[in-house]
């Protein structure tokens, strides 16, 4: 009998699995009670007893949330002639007095649950063979369903893995990101467990699960099995394209057992590193692309933004700073008396030529914490060597040199701030030409201002296209990385979501800020809404991340067959890559609402679509508009049609579920049970412009189960 026809309780091993679950829950509770009993956590003295008690309470707190669902799967394995069953869960548990041990999903053994391999050779011990893989649906300490995924006694693959996946995909969306630990597919598992220490770019279409895979990879990186490549959660960072998505995505990390990871946006991270948290960051290029109908001006703005994010700009900045600092050395020197025990005062002297030599050495060393800190260390080291300072007096000499050194370094470096220096460079054709890397045409392009018609804030501001250039100045002068107290160190691991929207220059800077090989980039070139900031191809990213490998996810899991096919039709107009395969999940036909133009426009159609979606059982519903101003206006007007949609028009708004209305640039990365694309016509999404077709693709790929297209007049030709 096919697996899908079995009622959950009719599986022949249901009662045995139910009994094992009961025993595992009891064993976990006994262990937690033992840890929480302070009288049992006794050491040789009071201090040791307190430490042991605190550690035990921490262990109990980590295990307690998993008692309601100790595991979600099992493996029957044969090793060295003996068979045993291993249970796989989100948190490892060792039952020292019984058979109820659970292995963690992110362990070496846990990986076997997801793979298609039937044999493995562990790092220690004998080779083994997989006899059976089994999914166990557990909720609130209750066994709900047993599904065999593979059983060699039943002919091998049962089709159960696809059945479990489809069951999960039928569930409605929530206000948080999906936890896919229980249903990782083999290709997702392979990407998630790509060898540690190798930078990886995961290319996947909308709904392929790349973002959640990136989060699970980060959790996998924190496992002790990673050895020298193990990442500390507090030393990791996840960059999301906007604050709406950052807040939405951050909720899953604690569920994966990792706390204190920095989840932020590139702009927030950059302004924090620059010490300019109050600086208002604008994206005037995006404003122009969304509102201006002049294709010449749009093309000019696009090309200038692309050039500002070109990786060559790193060496343009370096050459500019080399010239600036060498010019600042003119007439500089240092002469300082230094007191040493048992000797007459020694005089440490540096002339301009010696300083220039040290600066050359520092530039060659390219220290993580920047040229200023590197120059201080170089001068201190030279002083200690020249004066033959004993080791026990080195600290004293550094203190004596601290003030004159600060004064000297101030004269060389103090006039250089990231904002002023980046803008000084852009305003000087001669400085832009100094490196020899830019053509005359490119230098001329950087001198144009295609955004002059887009208003700027009254207070201090910077544009997103300028930020990487400012970060480059910061990286060379003050350093780039993770601040641990006063120490700057590389991040242990960085995950980039919507990676197609990060400039090659930003990749080069993140490569400096992170341990070699510890960047995971997640993106889809087909969804490049911010292509003016992003790379033209993944090869451009690989050039900045030595050894980076591109993995392509071949399936999309988010949407029904009907929605996936519609998205594929749009993407085919600009995507030259192979077609993405969707999960064979049937659903409602795509709804199309059209009417002649009337006094209320499309508002009655949208209100009707909302009610139809709600009648179909959906609660998390998005109305997707072309621009933020459209969403703001429409949210207010829809109330007259008994439709109350929460507007999300800025990054300060949070997505909490329910009925929302938001522009396509903020909808990107989110998913909803139902989505309604407003103004889905050629007047709104220009058919002749690739950028507009990309926007339409993003709008139409947000829905899991139910999609509606709304327009007064004819629908867009690609979706009609």
UniProtKB/TrEMBL annotation:
Gene3D superfamilies this protein is in? Answer: P-loop containing nucleotide triphosphate hydrolases (3.40.50.300)
* Alphabetical list of PROSITE patterns matching this protein: UVRD_HELICASE_ATP_BIND (PS51198)
EC annotation from Swiss-Prot or TrEMBL: 3.6.4.12
Q: Which UniProt keywords apply?
A: ATP-binding, Helicase, Hydrolase, Nucleotide-binding
GO CC entries: cytosol
Q: Name one Pfam family in it.
A: UvrD_C_2
Question: One GO molecular function term?
Answer: ATP binding
User: Which amino acids does the record list as binding ATP?
Assistant: 204-211
Q: Which GO terms describe its biological process?
A: recombinational repair
Using the UniProt record, name the top-level EC class of this enzyme in a single word: hydrolase
Q: What positions does the domain UvrD-like helicase ATP-binding occupy?
A: 183-560
What's the protein here called? DNA helicase-2/ATP-dependent DNA helicase PcrA
Organism for this UniProt entry? Deinococcus soli (ex Cha et al. 2016)
